[in-house]
Amino acid sequence: MSAKNGKHHAFITILPNPIEGSDHGCKVSVIRLLRNFELAFVQVTGFPPETEIAFRGNSEGEVHESKIKTNSDGYGDLGILPNKLGKSKGKMEIQFTAPGCAPKVSFKWGKTEDGQVYQ
Predict the structure, then answer these.
(1) What is the CATH number of the domain that holds 51?
(2) I need a surface site. Which of 24, 76, 91, 96 has the fewest CB within 10 A?
(3) Mean pLDDT to the nearest integer, 87-95
(4) Which of 101, 93, 54 is nearest to 76 (CA)?
(5) Residue 5: left (phi > 0), alpha (psi -120 to 50), or beta?
């Protein structure tokens, strides 16, 4: 689309290898937003519509629990900062729990021993 006259814009989203988990039709996808996974975008789909679902994140023993509400399509999203104070790398485990399903995923964040990023 042309944006010369300011009336038309085109946007695209590139999702490089999302990390996914599913359970009984409910799905969670995690997308790396920064190089060393300092910020992750989490999407949930297939959950009951207009429902509060429990979220539990565990990053190297640092546990956070919260709730998010799905929309009328059973979709929800949030941003996560998986880092733990005093650590340069680690593993994050995430689980969402709703009536009838509890998908979970895990991913590594930070730099590896040789300075590379986790894939």
Answers:
(1) 2.60.40.2240
(2) 24
(3) 94
(4) 54
(5) alpha
Give residue 50's domain range: 19-110
Written as six digits, the tokens of 79 are 């941003």
Q: Which residues pair with 40 in a beta bridge?
A: 32, 80
Assess if residue 105 is contained within a domain. Answer: yes
Q: Is 44 domain-assigned? A: yes
Q: How many CA atoms lie within 13 A of 19 on its CB side?
A: 21
Reported as a single tens digit per residue, the pLDDT across 5-63 is 667 766 655 556 789 999 999 999 999 888 888 899 999 999 999 999 999 999 999 99
User: Is the entire prediction scored with pTM above 0.70?
Assistant: yes
